[in-house]
Amino acid sequence: MFKKFQPASDVSGQVSVKTSVQRGIRSSILAQWRITPETLEQIWPKKESLTLVKCREHISIYTLHGEPLIFQHFDGPYFPTLRLLHKYPALLPPVTIDRGAIRFLLAGAHMMCPGLTSAGGRLPAAADALPANTPVAIHAEGKEHAAAVGILKLPTEDIKRINKGVGVETVTYLGDDLWKLQTL
Asked: Can you say how many angstroms the Cα of residue 77 is from the centroid of all Cα atoms in its chain?
């Protein structure tokens, strides 16, 4: 999504977000992420106003004082930026890929089911199974911080059972143009 993102050519405009829309974003984030209202208040204080940066391909990036915090594609789920996820690692449920998939992940590839189910990969237990279209933090085997943010294409139980095809669609990853972007 952000593989060839250039702010000079891909940003079409910036608009301050209305208070009523900000309330809707807050409630959506609280419902979608593993976050308490207090943590959300630390990340984005109620008195602070977000700025919507409209980009190509229907991508919306929400910034606070110029720093990208969250983004959304069309009307899909809200994703935290990787920098925000490194500050607050518990925002999204984690999945882990094995060492062999790391180089593909850092090139922007989607994560295949075998990379998630092999010896180094890890998915949530059956009791904590995640449905399809859930935003997840993609961790690499043996690494502390998330290497990417993605969205599940299959429920985690189906990934374990089928073990074929794309399991997680990569949305942003270490080294892409959103990662390189400090302010907008």
From this structure: 9
Q: Which of 152, 147, 158 is nearest to 98 (CA)?
A: 147
Q: Among candidates 69, 63, 55, 59, which has minimal Cα distance to 16?
A: 63
> pLDDT-derived band of residue 4, with 50, 70 and 90 as boundaries?
confident
pTM summary value: 0.93
**HEC assignment per residue over 71-100:** EEECCCCEEECHHHHHHCCCCCCEEEECHH
pLDDT at residue 2 in the model: 79
Q: Are the CB atoms for 111 and 166 separated by under 8 Å?
A: yes
DSSP 152: E
Let me know: does 40 contact 26? Beta carbons within 8 Å.
yes
DSSP-assigned letter for residue 122:
B
CA distance 83 to 49: 20
